[in-house]
Amino acid sequence: MATKATSNIYVYLRNGKIICGLCNAFIDEIQYRSHVAECGMLDKDYEVQPALKVCALCGKEVKDLTQHYGICTGGNNPTNNKYENRQQPTITPMHASLDRLQVQNRNQQLDQNKSHVLHGNSSAVDLSKGSSHTLPCRLHHMYCLKCLQHSMNEYIQSNTVPVCHSTLCDYELSRYDVACLPLEADTIKRLLTCVKSTQRAQCPLCVFYVDFNTMNDFQKHVASCNSENMIPCEYCHCLYNIHRLDDHSRQCRNLSSSQQQQALIDFILPRTKYPLTAQQIRVFIENRKKTHLSLDPHSIVETLAEFGDTFPFEIPTRDCDVCMETCVYDDIFVFGCEESHKLCYGCFENSCTTKMTNNEILTCGLCAYELHEGEIKQLRVADNRKKQFLDYQIQKTFNTYVGGTQGVIRCPNQTCKWVAEARDPNDRFRVQCPMCGNEFCSLCNQQYHFRTTCQQLPEITQRWFFWCNTERGNYWQARAQQDANFRAQLEDYERQKAANIQRNQELAQRYNDLLADENYKAQNCRLCPHCRRVVQHLSGCDLMVCGRNYHGGDQQSGCGNGFNWSQALPYTPIGNTGPQQVANNLPSPEQQKLVVHEGVQCDACHNVVQGIRFDCVHCASLTFCEKCEQRSTLEHSNEIRNQQKPQHVFQLIARSLNGNNGQ
């Protein structure tokens, strides 16, 4: 069988292009093999030899010592230092799906990579005639060291941005590129002052980009890089050490989605190829969420790197209504006024500072809209400064209210300074303090009570205390003696005695506090003739203002109306009666079985309530029948205790409120 003659075709590189040895055409290096096969010389077989490398400036042949761009030692003296082969280690980025076992399996490979990065090639590099350096541009232009030195000196002397080639390649050298040049340390230092590119260096271990000032800083990062033990949090997607991940996850899962996203933004911010703002990363993440793309930090950083130093999305902006400066919308605060005025946070702070200096109430920077607590909390200032604004606004608001005729409501929590204007000082309603969360009645300042007046509450509390301690057992004994069908309730009462001990002790404490409070008010307090709030006269003349001292100070909740102390009605306390007197107010069991509370269902058994009806006065709607009462109120008591709230009180209703007291 005849064989075709084989010829050697030599090709060589000049200015980033390979010259074909057959047709002398300029082609890309990666295409020269296919080009030779299609060059028109198809009647022969050719053995394509490796390309000869030449300097991009002088065209002389050079030795290819640095074919790939990767980690380097940087700042080397070409006359006496080793220069590492800059081949970037090949590693697999750590994605969100990577589990603990996969991380452990990568340890050996990453240890080898780290050793390669830090120690490099142990043999000395031949820097004799023909040595070269390859720049990381798209075409990987190669330079002999003499031309490289000459080219970089020109950039230093002209103080211009160093690029790969002044006419053929406009690739800007980054700080990392310059630090990798095999030049004198002094030349490297001077050349770094000309660099304008903000591109960061990529760590070959964690595959993130690192901001550094010197090559030594970069190598320190590599030495401490512990990427082999980093896995992502399932909540915020940030990478954490495998030994710390469980502790972090327990805290992270309780954060809001915005806080988790902010953590991811803070993680990515210093690790992108080019510096970006937090707002840009936020917009990029929101866009990935809309398109259901991965929030893996590596994926985000790699995608952003593909866009270079140009951010791919438009950031919404708006002009501040005061200084007219254009700000990203995230840096604009929108007030709650009707006009929805919009100020940058700098003008927002300046407005609050000016008004506080002038002893004015804090308002919108452009109108008289008074700032609420939640708006002041949005100020981007130090916590102590923010607290100063809040305390000032609270005091200023209170002084404004008490200076007029309107009443005020103040949180009874002694450590809280919240205050608000009462539209109707005589109206009773539920108040939840927006600062401390305390829930109270607008008139008596006690735990809020539904369907009862402030004056009725002490008696209802007393009656509930005696029922739980003694009268429940007496009642079921009388019921069981009358009808054997009620023996089950009596037996259930006996079984639940031990479980009732803690609840009864807490009720006893509440009842004793109630008696002490009632006795104190009977001796020291009277009723405001306008709103019937309990008021106390401390000293001075008989002129009083409900809610404060007549001449100012000691501000409390009140209607703000004036009256004469000697003409006010005295406070009448509940009688310190015993359980027998309370029991006498209940109908006898013979009468009780006929009472039907039509239209009222028990929240436990869902049957129409018969007998004694139990309504929780501290819940908007909670009713039990007498058969379910003991077990259900005890469960309710345990729930309230777990919430660390005061025990609830139930009102005993023995007669039907609709007038139907018999079947």
Automatic annotation (TrEMBL):
GO terms for biological process: protein ubiquitination. Gene3D superfamilies: 3.30.60.90. Pfam families: IBR. InterPro entries: E3_UB_ligase_RBR (IPR031127), IBR_dom (IPR002867), Multihaem_cyt_sf (IPR036280), TRIAD_supradom (IPR044066), Znf_ZZ (IPR000433), Znf_ZZ_sf (IPR043145). It catalyses: [E2 ubiquitin-conjugating enzyme]-S-ubiquitinyl-L-cysteine + [acceptor protein]-L-lysine = [E2 ubiquitin-conjugating enzyme]-L-cysteine + [acceptor protein]-N(6)-ubiquitinyl-L-lysine. One of its GO terms (molecular function) is zinc ion binding. It comes from the Eukaryota. Residues 316-581 form the RING-type domain. SUPFAM superfamilies: Multiheme cytochromes, RING/U-box. The keyword Transferase applies. Its EC number is 2.3.2.31. This is RBR-type E3 ubiquitin transferase. Keywords: Metal-binding, Repeat, Transferase, Ubl conjugation pathway, Zinc, Zinc-finger.
